[in-house]
Amino acid sequence: MFFKGLFLLFYQPFQEEFGGKIFKEPFGFNLLGLSRKLDLGGTLNLLVASIVWGFGHISGAHINPAVSLAFLANGHINLVRALFYIACQLIGSVLAALTLVELIPTHLYTSASSKNSIINSTLLRLKRESNSTKLPGENQIFSSSVKYSNIGLTLLSDQITPLQGYLVEVLITFVLLFTIFACIDKKRNDLGGSFPLTIGFAVTVGALFGGKFTGGSMNPARSFGPAFINQNWSNHWIYWAGPITGAILAGFVYKFLSFGKKKIQKNH
């Protein structure tokens, strides 16, 4: 019974948080190559919905340290589980970024200032001799991400300050987590439709709004993998401080607004 309990407590959630990252991030990183915002929005929505639908029953499909910390702050999970999830998410993000390197043709990459990149030192075929230039068909959906590499780096646009970038990440992550807490509220019986699609739409809105400013991360792990393999930590603190602040704030605000309210019944 002890080992069965240990399996249920850690191994199954590990499969979800680690496996979910491996499954999701290669697609998510590569969305930077889509040519139209409509393509980006639709693909991102369905991608997140698929992950939440497929893995949500195991551990909640956090796939995001900000989500795990917000759930910890609101008492949905304990500290040990939160730290375990976050470790799996970060490892999964790094391996997912490396997986994407192997999946995408090398001519789609650009590299301007990543001479110390782990990718360029271990996978020499990705290194280019010239400075970064815009490749034919390369898009500007995430203008901050084309300076170094299009493998998914989330970099701050030169149009805004670090403080503004931080606030953008706070805002879009707040919207995402507020939506998540609304979807899992046990006091509500008035909810209909698909929760995974609803959460997917929230991610899409955040990505489309924040994409041109910060890359629209909303997820420290999503930014960590590409930053790690490129060894590019430019303003990386934004992608931790912003989402975590927004996530925890959303949890507290939702809890405050719903405090003392009776169970909501669906009107027929």
UniProtKB/TrEMBL annotation:
Gene Ontology terms: cellular component: plasma membrane
One Pfam family it belongs to: MIP
Residues spanning the membrane: 46-71, 83-104, 163-184, 191-210, 237-257
Annotated PROSITE patterns: MIP (PS00221)
Alphabetic keyword roster: Cell membrane, Membrane, Transmembrane, Transmembrane helix, Transport
InterPro entries the record matches: Aquaporin-like (IPR023271), Aquaporin_transptr (IPR034294), MIP (IPR000425), MIP_CS (IPR022357)
Alphabetized GO MF terms: water channel activity
Keyword Transport in record: yes
Membrane topology (UniProt): Multi-pass membrane protein
Entry's family note: Belongs to the MIP/aquaporin (TC 1.A.8) family.
Stated name of the protein: Aquaporin-4 isoform X2
Organism in which the protein naturally occurs: Brachionus plicatilis (Marine rotifer)
